[in-house]
Write a structure and sequence with these properties.
This protein is of the alpha+beta class. 32% of the residues lie in helices and 20% in strands.
């Protein structure tokens, strides 16, 4: 599937263009960008045919969620949502909800996924074609931040026993 997408897509930038995009946006050098690109391609190849994906949306009313055109940008691990989203909307307001969807691997926009991962590697994003049309919502729930510091996963200082 990935090979077909890479070979048949005229919109897909070549590897050199993707590496340059990575260096211009997020990586210190071409080796780092190239290694990341290879990792992203490997992750796409290893995805199962049917994948569970997560997305945060902000709406004033849960009944206003478009259940057909459910959106482009997703992650494969719900934990990744907390790294790039917060309870405050960066797109205009509303309350945050997590959409859990099931999508066929053929719905992945490979060029979009590669470009977004080279520009924003910390987001670990999967981009779907056609605003997610064809993916099925399996759950909608309020988005709650865990409150954990995932960056270092270190307990507060008062939890350490110091000896002087």
């Amino acid at each position: 599937l990935l090979r077909e997408g890479l070979e048949n897509s005229k919109a897909l930038p070549n590897k050199i263009e993707l590496i340059k995009l990575g260096v211009n946006n997020a990586f210190n050098d071409e080796d780092m960008a190239s290694n990341h690109l290879d990792e992203v391609i490997g992750r796409i190849k290893s995805l199962p045919q049917s994948i569970k994906l997560y997305r945060v949306i902000f709406v004033d009313d849960i009944n206003h969620i478009d259940k057909v055109n459910i959106g482009y940008h997703y992650v494969t691990k719900i934990k990744d949502l907390e790294q790039s989203h917060h309870k405050i909307s960066h797109v205009g307001g509303g309350e945050p909800y997590v959409l859990t969807v099931r999508a066929d691997k053929s719905l992945i926009d490979i060029p979009g996924t590669l470009i977004n991962n080279m520009k924003y590697p910390h987001e670990n994003e999967i981009t779907l074609k056609n605003r997610g049309k064809g993916a099925k919502i399996i759950k909608i729930e309020p988005f709650k931040e865990s409150g954990e510091d995932d960056f270092l996963n270190i307990p507060p200082m008062n939890d350490f026993d110091f000896e002087y």
